[in-house]
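Quick one: structure tokens for this chain, please?
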Amino acid sequence: MPRSSQLLEVDGRQLSISNLSKPMFPTGFSKGQVIDYYIRVSDHILPHLKDRPITLKRYPNGVKARHFYEKDAPAYTPKWVRRFPVPRRSGDKDICYVLINDLPTLVWTVNLANLEMHPFLHRIPAQQRPTTMVFDLDPGEGIGILECAEVALMLRKACDRVGLRSFAKVSGSKGIQLYVPLNGPAAYAETQTYARHVAESLEREHSDFVVSAMAKDLRRDKVFIDWSQNSDFKTTVAPYSLRAKQDEPFISLPVAWNELTVAIKKGDASRLYFRPEEALARITGKKDPFAAVLSLRQKLPALVRESSI
């Protein structure tokens, strides 16, 4: 496809945008439509990206072609794009991550075919202090998102019992993610330990349905509760991010708890998948239902006997 480009003014910055008609998904959803979606959802997604280093997940030839992850900001990154150095675990040269703190930066990364937004759970400079504890629910072979919804409701009850509010979002792929906002001094060592404890407790109570171990051969017909996402070197897809997992675009979108219950009762997984226009129709002109995740302060209780979980 011949390369074409045009200038787009975004909040006072002139951006060179290329190949707007290029299909990113087999359905024909184009790069221009991806950019348009992110512009329209920017008021909701940007607060969840602010000051969080981003791993770019780039699909230069669409979701069916090769994609790659890019941690270091490319050499051609504009000077006005904020970056933050993070030490490598190997001790080599720092990784210079992009920070998507404004709309021009968001659009610039999307023009690089960064279709999904994958921030860390912490904000800089507090690299060992996640603002959220997260449970990533992934269905094994033989089951799907409705079973993940059942486990999400189990996790919600476990959190409620110890006085922790939690919030759910569909991943835009096969699973569901549950967020427990903290916004306090807890470190990753604490959140991962606590999340693992909860996951293993639920596995003991529901061993026929829940698994907390990483091994894929243990997951058939079970929901894997991935507690290891609570780590300073792992990223989690942001709320309102587009996903590049299927032939058509779906959105990682906050959902109300009663929506999970209704979907389970009706046996209708389609209620938990949202295309871009459906997602925008739910949120346009409305407050962010995930806003509390950014501000609600909660404290992890001390690990106590199993009956308290």
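Confidence is low (pLDDT under 50) at residues 304-309.
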